[in-house]
Amino acid sequence: MPATTSAYQAVNLAQKFSLFSEHWSQKIIAQMNDYQFKLARLQGEFIWHTHADTDETFIVVDGELRIEFRDGAVTLQAGEMYVVPKGKEHKPVAEREVKLLLVEPSGTPNTGDQGGARTTPGDVWI
User: Fold this and answer.
1) What global pTM score does this model have?
2) Cα(117)–Cα(32) distance, rounded to whole angstroms?
3) pLDDT tens-digit profile of 92-124?
4) May I ask the CATH class of domain 31-126?
5) Which of 8, 13, 43, 114 could form a disulfide linkage to 49, CB 3.0–4.6 angstroms apart?
């Protein structure tokens, strides 16, 4: 039987979410090759934006998230995911707080091509 070691530890999403309360600010919890796993708390409406060079994966951990597109929308419940294709303009909307796991390439800005005041630092690990 292998000895247990603290080098092997699961990432506990609830514990990581307990470390921050601000909305629309992504926190990195893991990296796999060039892809990062980011947690975010969302509430209200974000901005219309696109990611020209990458898809973006939204996985709802808790709550309900609507991702609006210029020609429709998709609503995600806890335990559901959706991949927004690269170049597709979208706007996330959360009527109540949503806990979200994002999967996207390292260095992907949360505001995509729009930039501006709602852009958060992309290198914050928790």
Assistant:
1) 0.90
2) 29
3) 999 999 999 999 999 887 877 888 888 888 789
4) mainly beta
5) 114
